[in-house]
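I had to read the description of the data format several times before I understood it. The format is easy to grasp once an entry is in front of the reader. For illustration, here is how one protein appears when written out as sequence plus structure tokens:
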Amino acid sequence: MVVYALILVGLLSLAPKIADMAQSGTKSFKLINVTDDQGKEEKKQAPRQQRQAAEERPAEVKPPPPVALPPPVALPPPPVAPPNAPPMPPNMIIMSRQDFASTDISKMARSAQSGTQTAQNGQGGADSEEVGQGPNGEQLYAADWHVRPRGNELAFYMPKNRRGSGWGEIICQTIPDYRVDNCRQLGESPRGSGLSSALRQAAWQFRVKPPRVGGRLLVGAWVRIHYDFYDGRTEQQQP
């Protein structure tokens, strides 16, 4: 009942307003096509939304370009095993071409003849003769004259009033320029004749070749110098 009463009071309050509207006459209204405006607005917003969607869409990731691979390396062919050599007959010596050429007797004869001529000219490669040991056990070689001494080079050192034949021997160390040094008396005949002493004192003038061993000249090696005297004269017979 209370509800109905409230509705009735509301209707009564609206009655004067309705009466006023009836007295004022007919009112005109303008209808607006909301649907058309809404469609135009949606059409305007559609491209914008598409652009936004395109901007928000992640960029497509392009695959990397293919990498060119190097050409395959051709492997060398496998080694071919040499054919087995036929067995050699027994008692056969295999020689190289050089060894076979060295056995040529005609060439060996020419080589020997050439070596003899070289030795006669004083330029041979023959080793010097070994004749003992030096002061400290060094190898001692027979001396070979580079320039034979003259008689007047020894006359000053000869013993006074010396007569008769004899010999003297000294050992010296070779030095550059075919000279000798550190000479020592080795022996003499007759004993006490003073010939080895005279030879030692005159040795600073001697010109002696260094010993030759294996084709090399050994400067600094020790040599033995033998000198023969005849009737008091200073004539050398052999080194």
Remarks:
- The helical segments are 2-24, 34-56, 97-102, 105-120, 151-155, 195-202.
